[in-house]
# Entry
Amino acid sequence: MYGTVNALCARLMQRFKSDELMTLIIWTKEDVLAVLDDSGITDEAAEEILRRIEWQDDQHDTGVGLDALQSLAQSLRDEAEQAREATVPAAALETAIRVAWDFMRLEDAQNGEGAFARRFPAETAALCRISALLREQNGGGSKI
# Structure
């Protein structure tokens, strides 16, 4: 469960009898920051890790410890890396995209129509998105 003290208490009272025995292990933002002290995570990242602990499939089998927190922190870093933006000259980007499309056509010629898209679905989607944005920026005049 994730939430404020009041919300968690209310949910516990709804789900369990008041005299039912249980063990409750609590993680706070400060706990996450302390355990991951060497990784230099931010307060915001620690809060997001707390949110994600609730959805750990194996939390009851393996617990939530250093390994789980490090894995969640790495997932946040990976997501931030994927979402980062870069600024490059349009001509350089068009050249890189043209080379990528040439590789895609070669892959398809050697391994059958659609081979590249099946083998590299995320890359194909990225190429399509970037090409569409370049065409839009060029008023539809780009050959990419």
Residues 122 and 128 are 10 Å apart (CA to CA). The chain has a mean pLDDT of 88.
